[in-house]
Specification:
mainly alpha; disordered N terminus; disordered C terminus
């Protein structure tokens, strides 16, 4: 089955095997979508879709699903997925990609949580109805800290949304990493369309057995609620190197999976937005195979998203995602206290972004240089050490 997932690893003219340039830009755009969406919500300015940071997270999830499968294909010859050593290498690689920067951001969020909670109250005084639970900011208990350090928090309804960070998706991502080897073994046995449908059906069955339990999650931080979105991205990777007919079939299946009414908002406009995200991702990655009237504009868009500025934005995307609320909450509170409710929401948004964006850029760059990049290097050294006796490519 693995041999049928992809061809050479080069897509749509990418010169570097194993790299899909437009995904850098998509990751960067997803991080900006989340940042701008939170800024709009906190400022009280409503712009349809733009003020929905959850769609930016859905884009992140689809990209993650794509990349994990695509890298599986790239490494399948030296890392067969039937071998437990491959699972260990995968988990170590992903831990050191996610954990170092997350732990640093978590320490800051826990330490200054009560201060951020006060800022949140100030914001709510100007933008009524925008307040979230104060438990997110004031819970400095050992139990909350340990659950977040172990990444178990997302599986528990009371702890999936319990810090000032937007980290409910980080716990979700770790659950996906834990499940991925077994998902891939299932797919390798019965094939992609059937495997995707079986996995999605299993998720739907679990959800239907305990709908009240899953409704108790403040955010969709447990894998059952977002598995179908990961599958949409996985199918996009599975279509690499296939014929136009197969790509179209996988795209249709991915779009339908993205539209399943579970996890997050289920209004028709929200489901349509997720469908368009999945469709757009397929178009950008597979435009050369799909052809048609949109092939040329999609090719140009993919080239732009793979350019150097977007590559840098993609590298910064994780840091932007983790740090932006730590900066934005006090910035928006400062603007709210200074300007007050009479100031129009667009003006509050513009002032808050003028403070937030440069500060987030500085924090992200510093964190990338001092924490994120060294963390990846540590993971590579560990995988190459005699302790694991498994030499692996970059994190």
């Amino acid at each position: 089955m693995a041999d049928r997932i992809a061809g050479t690893g080069k897509i749509n003219g990418d010169r570097e095997a194993g790299r899909i340039g437009c995904l850098d830009g998509l990751r960067g755009l997803a991080s900006l979508w989340v940042l701008v969406g939170h800024g709009l919500l906190l400022s009280g300015w409503r712009i349809p879709l733009a003020d929905s940071p959850d769609f930016g997270v859905d884009l992140f999830i689809m990209i993650s699903g794509f990349l994990m499968v695509f890298h599986y294909v790239q490494r399948r010859a030296r890392e067969p997925w039937q071998a437990p050593s491959t699972w260990t290498a995968f988990w170590v690689r992903r831990f050191f990609r996610i954990a170092p920067l997350y732990y640093a951001a978590l320490a800051v969020a826990i330490a200054v949580g009560p201060w951020l909670g006060d800022a949140r109250v100030d914001i709510a005084s100007v933008v009524p109805g925008s307040m979230t639970s104060m438990e997110r900011y004031i819970d400095q208990s050992l139990q909350n800290i340990l659950l977040h350090l172990s990444f178990m928090f997302g599986a528990l309804p009371d702890y999936g949304f319990r810090t000032a960070l937007p980290d409910w998706s980080i716990g979700l991502e770790m659950q996906y990493y834990l499940a991925l080897p077994f998902l891939m073994l299932t797919i390798a046995r019965i094939g992609w369309p059937a495997g995707a449908l079986v996995i999605a059906a299993a998720g739907i069955l679990l959800f239907s057995l305990r709908p009240a339990f899953f409704a108790s999650y403040e955010m969709p931080s447990v894998l059952v609620l977002k598995l179908h979105v990961f599958l949409a991205g996985m199918l996009c990777a599975a279509a690499v190197g296939r014929s136009r007919r197969v790509v179209l079939g996988y795209a249709l299946l991915a779009v339908l999976l993205a539209a399943l009414p579970i996890g997050g908002r289920t209004a028709p406009v929200a489901l349509a937005a997720r469908m368009m995200i999945a469709f757009g991702m397929f178009g950008l990655i597979h435009h050369a195979v799909l052809g048609g009237v949109l092939a040329r504009p999609l090719s140009r868009a993919a080239a732009l998203l793979g350019s150097r500025p977007f590559h840098l934005l993609g590298e910064a995307s994780y840091g932007i995602y983790l740090s932006h609320l730590l900066v934005m909450l006090p910035a928006v509170a400062f603007v709210a206290n200074t300007s007050g409710a009479p100031t129009p929401a667009p003006a509050r948004f513009a002032l808050a972004m003028a403070i937030t964006i440069p500060a987030v850029a500085a924090v992200t760059w510093l964190a990338y240089v001092t924490i994120e990049r060294p963390g990846r290097a540590l993971g590579r050294r560990l995988l190459a050490s005699p302790l694991l006796r498994h030499r692996a490519p970059a994190c």
